[in-house]
Known about the structure:
Blueprint: H1 3-16, H2 59-66, H3 70-86, H4 95-108
Helix pairs in contact: 1-4, 3-4
Amino acid sequence: xxxxxxxxKQWDWFIVQDKPFGMNxxxxxMYRGDDGSPCSVGLLIPDEKYRREMENTGPRNIGDELGWxxxxxxxxxxxxTIHDSASRFVGGYQKHKFAERLRALAVEYDLTxxxxxxx
Length: 119
């Protein structure tokens, strides 16, 4: 998966489709939430490769199993950090802040955002 494919997937799922982040009953992010919705990293894990044991481990711990190279893992960690910080704003998740930070990341890596940019 390329960086462009990763950011496209994030943008489409969380910004365009406005899907919720994967969380458990206590509000902690999970690769797959209690309702099955994914977090930013979980969105990149194919259903057939997901295992419950992956929860509470970082992308570096599951990257080899998923075929992610070290550079891709570093990029995924950047996405995860943006995702995690967006879910911890006072008052809860703020979609516009998540979008703003994804935009900045896209510029930093010379990527384009897919159609459906709500701004």
